[in-house]
Predict the structure.
Amino acid sequence: MPALAETQVAAYRRDGFLCPVDVFTPAEAQQLRAELEAHEALHPSRGLKRDIAQYQRVNAHVVMETARRVAAERRILDAVESLLGPDLMVWSCEYFIKEPHTTKVVSWHQDLTYWGMDGSDHEVTAWIALSPATEASGCMRFVPGSHGQALVPHRDTFAEDNLLSRGQEIAVEVDEADAVVAALNPGQMSLHHGRLFHASGPNVTDDRRIGLVVRYIRPDTPSTGVGRDYAMLVRGCDRTLGRINMVPPSGDFSPAAIALYEEILAAQSATLSDGAEGGVSLYAEA
Ligand SMILES: O=C(O)CCC(=O)C(=O)O
């Protein structure tokens, strides 16, 4: 039984997003946050060559059990199945964290611009709040219906206070007056389409703004990047074998998981850095 009502599916198709959707209880969200913060505290003693921020921002599900568990969470998959159908893969898992009083922002962009999936309709992002995501803490803003157009040109800014990998922004004018605020309580999620215009502002509050982002695709989503791509099957079947279908080794930051992490990063870096006017540090060799 699909988890989203027909009216919710219709709203997603019309607007390119759905928000808010209840997934976790506040206590569950608090537990997920505690697990993330335990990793942050432990990281210096692990002796790994990359910062925790790198593992959080790129393919966190490969090395962190918490992210993997959330990515395979039945309540999220039921909702995503209503939009994408019964066969679901996780392409990426990322923690988007804004520290208290940070000036870091996310500029207006369309996710699909750099993913090597063309402008596919066969993906959806679940953004799950692990702390209050409000206008003051820098929650996302969406331009309803903007997913209805093709991918528009973007330019790289590499701006210091931009959280995106290359500070990319839409090169055409986006009218802020058209945007809606996607506020979420801890445990709620938004679902958004990869062609949707979206952005987020600074965090002027005393608490961290923590989003756990899971990017779901259908197995038949085009893979048009430079090299082979990877994904993790979480429901149904992959009858296409369009991507390398992987199950990360169990345990947190195990040597096997780190090795797989590096393999995937190396393979994806060509696509995700393609055309950049400078180095994209999130996809660089350690
Ligand atoms: O967390 C944010 O503020 C932006 C996240 C985002 O751009 C995305 O999930 O596609």
Q: What stands out?
A: The chain has a mean pLDDT of 94. The longest helix spans residues 26-46.
